[in-house]
Amino acid sequence: MACKRIFSILRRASWAAVCLGLAGSAAVPALRAQEKPAKPEPDVLIFSDGERLIGHLVRSSGKSITFHSDMAGDVTVDWSKIQELHTSKPYAVIRKNVQFHKGENPEQIPQGTLSATDKNIEVTPGPGHPPQIVPVDDSAYVIDEAAFQKAIGRNPSILRGWKGAISAGASLVEATQNSSTFTGSAAFVRAIPTEDWLDPRNRTTVDFSASYGKVTQPNTPVVKTAIYHADAERDEYFTSRVFAFGQLAYDHNFSQGLNLQQAYGGGVGWTILKSSNETLDLKGSLSYVNQQFAAPAQSLNLIGATVAERYARTFPHKVLLNEQLSVTPALNNAKAYSAAGSVGLTLPVYKRFSLATGIIDTFLNDPPPGFRKNSFQFTTGLTYTLP
User: Fold this and answer.
1) 261 and 352, same domain (yes or no)
2) What residues pair up with 9 in beta bridges, in sequence order?
3) Of 104, 122, 152, which residue constitutes the final position of a domain?
4) Is the pLDDT of residue 21 over 50?
5) CB-based burial of residue 39 (10 Å sphere; 0-12 exposed, 13-18 middle, 19+ buried)?
6) Is the domain of 268 the same as that of 293?
7) What is the dihedral of CA 339, 230, 278, 328, to 10 degrees?
8) 187 is in which domain, residue-wise?
9) How far apart are CA 88 and CA 58, in angstroms?
10) Which of 21, 72, 10 shows the shortest CA–CA distance to 47?
11) Beta partners for 347?
């Protein structure tokens, strides 16, 4: 009897535990639903003609703003065409000529919800704080407050912040003459900070390019072309436009009898043009150059003074133009001067894939006998842009 009574009690207890567990399981989603934060109210944009868009403000840059609507997508419009703008989320309004690397206190940047017209932006920080008025003409950027705070306090690791592209092309011919040509390049850049509304602190670039070709024919010596280039540069900014840099470069050019050229140097650069779609840098540097030719007697150790420029422009439909030119006279050998130039055009094709075409020209004034001074390349291929 005692055993039966104990068994009955245990059975009832187990059923009670199951019921409590089911009840708890059913209650969890309800509790989670209650804890889920309410969806923020949408922002409202009213055009000068009275048309209204509902969505959220993405950002403002200069004289225009970008507004996202579920129905219309991203819309960019000038401030002059806006009658009113009201936001429910807080934003940071960055005035022109604000430079954080010169000690600007982020707390002095107006932050809060916005109520704006084409003339003024009224920033309301919150209860107990008076609103601040920023003229539209005095505003450089309007940024989501959470993104602003994250960017100000962030110091990304060396593995983060890289952007770049990888290109490859090939040509094959099978006939009386068999020929093959392979070209490839990789370019990477890391600019800190990554946000365009913050003044630059440093920039790191790494580039590599290669061109290899071979022509064979029965009873005829093989004709080969092999050109390789690799370089890296580190820029440290004094101001938003002036920077110091250190650089290194390695070159091999079978067509000019150059087994290996090593260059190490540094100098000062100046960003002459800087906008959302266009940059132009002018640089001057001193470098040590070691040239090792196929004829060992021709090898040289040089001190070079380099003047260089680098230009980039983004055209409509994300068509990208890159151009650079450098001239390096040798201070200790008047005959051993060199120059290099390149122009590249990238046309988007599908998502991250683009068609790339370019021209690379290198000049050595003192190659070994039997080699031309000039080496010209025309390349085309498919490019993949890294996320």
Assistant:
1) yes
2) none
3) 152
4) no
5) exposed
6) yes
7) -20
8) 162-385
9) 13
10) 72
11) 355
Asked if 199 and 240 count as a contact pair (C-beta separation under 8 A), the reply is yes
pTM of the model: 0.75
- The secondary structure of residue 330, as a DSSP letter, is B
Is residue 380 within 8 A of residue 347, CB to CB? The reply is no
Please answer whether residues 360 and 253 qualify as being in contact, where contact means their C-beta atoms are separated by less than 8 angstroms: no
Examine the domain organization and report whether 57 and 94 are in the same domain. Answer: yes
Nearest CA to 377 out of 353, 361, 355 is that of 361
Q: What is the pLDDT of residues 76-91, one digit of tens each?
A: 999 989 999 999 999 9
Report the chain's C-alpha Rg in angstroms: 31
Peptide bond into 40 cis (omega under 30): no
Q: 20 exposed, middle or buried (CB, 10 Å; 0-12, 13-18, 19+)? A: exposed
- pLDDT of 68 strictly over 70: yes
How many independent structural domains does the chain possess?
2
Q: CA 49, CA 376: separation in Å to the nearest integer?
A: 57
* Contact (CB, 8 A) for 88 and 100: no
